[in-house]
Amino acid sequence: MSHSEVASLLEEGRWEEEGNFVYMYETVLRDLGVTFLLDHFTTYVLWLIWVAPSQLHSNGWAALQAFKVVCLALTMIPSAPIFLSHYIVRVNKKVGWVSLAPLSMTSLFRAYSVSYKCFKSRFVKIKALDGASFCSDYRPMPLYWRLPLKAQVTRKSQLSLEGKVGLQLLDELPKGMNCKEIVSLAVGSKPLYYLKSEFI
Length: 200
Prior knowledge:
Blueprint lengths: L2 H10 L8 E5 H7 L7 H10 L8 H16 L6 H5 L2 E5 L6 E5 L6 E2 L12 E5 L33 H11 L5 E2 H7 L5 H9 L1
Parallel strand pairs: 4-6
Antiparallel strand pairs: 1-5, 2-3
Helix pairs in contact: 4-7, 4-8
């Protein structure tokens, strides 16, 4: 389905009439290894910024995937507040896509792609069977495009003690790690060995 067809569904109000489903960019599934059911971490990030899965720009999905790989290597549970302490939410006013822009002083990763071409034109429709959820923990999450919340950066003082320790571990890593390489580790045969030898 093309972007214009999706936009038409939105404008005519027919998006929500077709039942429990989401549209997702094919490249996010194929290149970045995103799968449904969405895990707790991913669902919580989408819930905090209140955007549908297809509304998040592909570079944002890449950052989510890379963050999970790094947390796995550090034996940390991925935390949405810690992740969002490294990013601000930006909305493309013309179209409505949401980007996660890294904060300059705390940028963990370089963008997966400076110009992520053609991702907007190839959608896959994913439908939940028999009322099943798209999320592993049944947290409510928007399935359809909407105005995102203006989520503020999580301040260190707002984190739990465990969160502060996790943030300190991440802050000791090199800044601007190669997001594309780290995401590729998620599907590699020995991701932890490689990641630890290269970065940790």
